Amino acid sequence: MKPRMSMITLGVTNLERSIEFYKALGFPRRGDHEDVAFFELNGTWLGLYGREALAEDAEVSADGSGYNSFTISHNVPSEAEVAQAIEHAVSIGGKLVKPAQKAFWGGYSGYFSDPDGHLWEVAYNPFTWIGPEDN
């Protein structure tokens, strides 16, 4: 897995309030979606998504025992690389949370957690590349 962070997605309790907060900080918003917001940062993106919906996507409990209301996303250029990255993480001590599979939003993704339980989503987005360009 190449060392990069494509997106940090925060689970929020009030999406509109959070959007206004990050806009007020001066973060440039990208796209206009109803149930998710994206802000382009320098080399990575910040995503805002409903806390309950984010937990549901990762198939964990929203009560805080399964995750801390955010995931770190690592985008890759193919579906095969999603599975490869997750398998590698599990092979070095990560825990499989959600196997790589077709995602409801049209891409392909899965989740693993690091040894401390921090959630990582590995995703292939067929619509746009999110993250820094590979060297």
Features:
alpha+beta, 2,3-Dihydroxybiphenyl 1,2-Dioxygenase, domain 1, 135 residues, 8 strands
Write the SSE topology.
Elements: E1 7-12, H1 15-24, E2 29-30, E3 36-40, E4 45-50, H2 51-58, E5 70-75, H3 79-91, E6 95-102, E7 108-113, E8 119-124
Parallel strand pairs: 1-4, 5-8
Antiparallel strand pairs: 1-5, 2-3, 3-4, 6-7, 7-8
Describe this structure as you would to a colleague.
- The longest helix is centred in the middle third of the chain and has 13 residues, at 79-91.
- The protein has a single domain (7-124), classed as Roll (2,3-Dihydroxybiphenyl 1,2-Dioxygenase, domain 1), CATH 3.10.180.10.
- The protein is globular.
- An 8-stranded mixed β-sheet has the order 2-3-4-1-5-8-7-6.
- A hairpin with a 5-residue loop joins strand 7 and strand 8 (119-124).
- It has helices at residues 15-24, 51-58, 79-91, and strands spanning 7-12, 29-30, 36-40, 45-50, 70-75, 95-102, 108-113, 119-124.
- The model has no long low-confidence stretch (mean pLDDT 89).
- It is an alpha+beta fold.
- This is VOC family protein.
- InterPro entries: Glyas_Bleomycin-R_OHBP_Dase (IPR029068), Glyas_Fos-R_dOase_dom (IPR004360), VOC_core (IPR037523).
- Residues 4-125 form the VOC domain.
